[in-house]
TrEMBL record, chains A, B:
Entry protein name: ATP-grasp ribosomal peptide maturase
Domain of life: Bacteria
GO biological process: SOS response
Record-annotated MvdD-like pre-ATP grasp domain positions: 2-112
GO cellular component terms attached to this protein's record: cytoplasm
Single Gene Ontology MF annotation: ribosomal S6-glutamic acid ligase activity
Phylogenetic placement of the source organism: Bacteria, Bacillati, Actinomycetota, Actinomycetes, Kitasatosporales
InterPro entries cross-referenced by the UniProt entry: GRASP_SAV_5884, MvdD-like_ATPgrasp
Pfam families xrefs: ATPgraspMvdD (PF21068)
């Protein structure tokens, strides 16, 4: 049984996992959807109530029945490297590839529909609350008056994007920034704005979840850090990430989050306040982990490889298994 | 409790349903996501473990807690009518709106993630097979040799798009066409191609499903129809659609399909052969129904209105209901 990795050709994070899969002699096929219909090809046949499908990539042919798992790492845009790319060819290729893979029975890291839902920050915040995770007071609004009233109640605020990275090419991370006390919020009317109470933090926490396994890392805030340095991705500190224990209540809530979100992989960002409380900021279902593994030595890549290698569970019995159809 | 309809301003199909909602005195709010952040606005606040959200559209304000259902009819692209539209504003607005709606607890017709999955034709074909629906022999491939072998086994074929409408502006329906006997299939290598055994049909069937209710319509093929007229959308017949009985086995399979697909609405296309067998072609989760209602007098719009009007079911108890978070 083969592990299928959907990613671009150059992807050192995928390489880290592939090393472990090779060490366990698990067959791996890498496929970049961008290579449809050049270096990658597909075929699926629906006859006599049954389906037989195949993928080919880099000269290797794999049966869809023979897939144990699919890792959606960093796939390119389908058919974007075709000889004559077009929106139509991209759409046809996306539907063909992901449509067939969706009915393959393989386990997903992560299921594409669950992943799509889990990207929505407003959904994340509500889901985190429901799972009992502490969430800093947050407002997402296009009403300037709502923003002003929120700022009256929570004078120390940060602003961040609702959606994540700016869609330029290459995508640009938009830093979380502190809101100045004299902000007038009139511009809120021109686009949804996410305001959040700034947590006075003593550390950043990255909690990587792979299946049932939780791997937490912690980076203390430098003693001389300026309070405007709210975004760890852009902070000046050079301190490394260090392994951390997960408080049992957080572990329970995070597992409930993963189950409810139907995710196999998630990278949670928390901030730790002076009382030691972990405040949920977000869960990135495709978050990077290489920098954490390098700093902490935590076996994230190996854990992912183990998850991907597990045998496929027996398929559930269909409600209506009789295939009377002939053709 | 309010019904929220996401659609463009001019939508006579939505109007047909709104008439029935008004007749039952059910409050309705129409919102076109394209109107963010002009005629439409949103706000959501996450404080003390709870969420309070509001939408405003056309001067009306509605609480997200007060929504009983959301009908995703024909929503515009978020913020596309903003004063200064941009891909970034569209992404921020989409995430804000659909992210909040996803956690509102309202019933969806259809749930956006289920709808996305259900659009994939390869997934549809496999799901239909699994539910026991007869599916004509079908091949989706980028291998010319696979296409040639399939054509040897099934010499009478049609070709159709994998994905549906061509993404030009306005979108263009691509007709299903007969494959000529001397086709050489070399071009299959340049894009996924869907080939399907042509069913010699005596009628087209449109089966509209609204919740548990099945409404079937049938249009007989004209006696003098040319066998090349395979696509009912482009056929020359002027015969009206007429109400039809659903064979019990088909009804059972279709209900299994809807449950498995997690859809509340679906428009199934079948063709009926000389033996009376209904062959599954596709299930369009947002298929039009106005033309069927006009021809047959079937109460599709009223049935949709009734489904949308049903009270919200009590929310399931959370695995982890304790909201310890304060902010």
């Amino acid at each position: 049984m083969t592990v299928l990795i959907l990613t671009t050709e150059e992807d050192v994070t995928a390489d880290m996992v592939v090393v472990h899969l090779h060490a366990c002699a698990v067959p791996v096929v890498r496929l970049d959807p961008a290579d449809l219909t050049g270096g990658a090809a597909l075929s699926g046949e629906y006859v006599h109530g049954a389906f037989r499908g195949h993928l080919s990539s880099g000269g290797r042919l794999v049966s869809l029945d023979g897939l144990r798992s699919v890792w959606v790492r960093r796939p390119g845009i389908p058919a974007s490297r075709a000889a004559r790319p077009s929106p139509w060819l991209t759409e046809e290729s996306a539907q063909a590839l992901y449509g067939m893979l969706r009915s393959s029975g393989a386990r997903w890291m992560n299921d594409p529909d669950a992943a799509h839902r889990a990207r929505h920050k407003p959904w994340q915040l509500r889901h985190a609350q429901s799972c009992g995770l502490p969430v800093p007071a947050t407002l997402i609004t296009t009403f300037p008056q709502a923003a002003r009233e929120f700022a009256d109640r929570y004078p120390d605020l940060v602003v961040k994007p609702v959606s994540g990275a700016h869609p330029q090419d290459p995508p640009r991370a938009v830093p979380t920034s502190r809101v100045s006390p004299d902000a007038d919020f009139a511009a809120v009317a021109f686009g949804p704005t996410l305001l959040q109470r700034r947590v006075a933090k003593r550390a950043d926490i990255r909690l990587t979840v792979v299946g049932e396994r939780l791997l937490a890392a912690r980076k203390p805030v430098a003693a001389d850090a300026h309070p405007d340095e709210v975004d760890v991705r852009f902070a000046s500190t050079t301190a490394p990430w260090e392994p951390a224990e997960v408080p049992p209540r957080i572990a329970e809530s995070v597992r409930a989050y993963m189950r409810g979100a139907e995710l196999a992989y998630g990278a949670f960002d928390f901030v730790e306040d002076a009382d030691g409380t972990w405040w949920f900021l977000e869960c990135n279902q495709s978050g990077q982990f290489g920098f954490i593994e390098v700093d902490t030595g935590q076996p994230i890549a190996r854990t992912i490889a183990e998850w991907l290698s597990r045998p496929v569970a027996p398929r559930p019995t269909r409600l209506n298994g009789a295939n009377s159809a002939v053709s």
